[in-house]
Amino acid sequence: MNKYELTVILSAKLDDEARAAVVEQLKGYITRYNGTVGEIDEWGKKRLAYEIQHQIEGFYYIINFEGDQNTPNELESHVRIMEPVLRYLVIRKED
Q1: Which of 4, 12, 21, 86 is most exposed by smallest CB count within 10 Å?
Q2: What does the pLDDT average to over 69-94?
Q3: Cα separation of 88 and 36, whole Å?
Q4: Total domain count for the chain?
Q5: What secondary structure does DSSP assign to the chain, as a single string?
């Protein structure tokens, strides 16, 4: 199992319950594709470097997880089309 990190920026227009639902959905995608969710780091609302979809702020989350080599690709295919996600990035962490 490889270690990965998903960084995701959610829309600032979401309330607390909606953000929690999106994070739970992301965790569900990770576990569905043979991954295990580790630590979730919530950075809170931050100003974006540039405007994205007419928004200047977003909520940042970093989700650490382990999975096989197909887990990141499957995860990205779902995150890419999620409406509240402004930006995302999955990287492989060194052991």
Answers
A1: 21
A2: 95
A3: 19
A4: 1
A5: -EEEEEEEEEETT--HHHHHHHHHHHHHHHHHTT-EEEEEEEEEEEEEEEEETTEEEEEEEEEEEEE-TTHHHHHHHHHTT-TTEEEEEEEEPP-
Compute the distance between CA of residue 39 and CA of residue 85 in angstroms, rounded to an integer: 20
CATH of the domain at 74: 3.30.70.60
Total-model pTM:
0.92
**Per-residue pLDDT at 60:** 98
45: domain range?
2-92
CA-to-CA distance for 67 and 52, rounded, in angstroms? 30
